[in-house]
Specification:
single chain; about 160 residues; alpha/beta; Alpha/beta knot; five-stranded parallel beta sheet; 5 helices; 5 strands
């Protein structure tokens, strides 16, 4: 299985980078993992028009990294909120049905453009709360790792 994480923004904090690196290492036993960072666009003025322009630019950059055959999972507040077991089942079912090239997308500060949401095959929510993008990367990688442990019936989950 191949897993790509596309995210807006870079990780500056060392402790987040170290946590991400640890989960990427753990995941390497189960899948080929890569991360693509998209530059976050800067706002001149924080108003609706500017935010819309930023989201559109970030969206175009995200979409330029996605191939037609990839199964896209976007992280969205209004996505489906699932248990770890259900996420594991989703990943397992995708692999069994030939969708073994997964792309997870974490948007920028203002979310994802409609174009990215329309390209998404599955909208996933971790919570109705807002998390820092850096922390969300760690949480996502941990949950993907947990999913593989559940799929393989290996200890870790409980």
């Amino acid at each position: 299985m191949k897993i790509t994480l596309i995210c807006v923004g870079k990780i500056k904090e060392k402790f987040y980078r170290e946590a991400i690196k640890e989960y990427e290492k753990r995941l390497s036993a189960y899948a080929k993992v890569s991360t693509l960072e998209i530059n976050d666009e800067k706002l001149k003025n924080e108003n609706e028009a500017e935010i819309s322009i930023v989201m559109e630019k970030e969206g175009k950059n995200i979409l330029s990294k996605i191939k037609d055959n990839q199964f896209v999972i976007t992280l969205e507040i209004l996505g489906e909120n699932v248990t770890s077991e259900k996420l594991a089942s989703k990943i397992d079912n995708l692999a069994l049905t030939g969708s073994s090239d997964l792309v997870f997308i974490i948007g920028g500060s203002y979310g994802l453009s409609d174009e990215v949401k329309n390209r998404s095959n599955y909208a996933l929510s971790f919570s109705k709360m807002t998390f820092p993008h850096q922390l969300m990367r760690v949480i996502l990688f941990e949950q993907i790792y947990r999913a593989f442990k559940i799929i393989r019936k290996e200890p870790y989950h409980k």
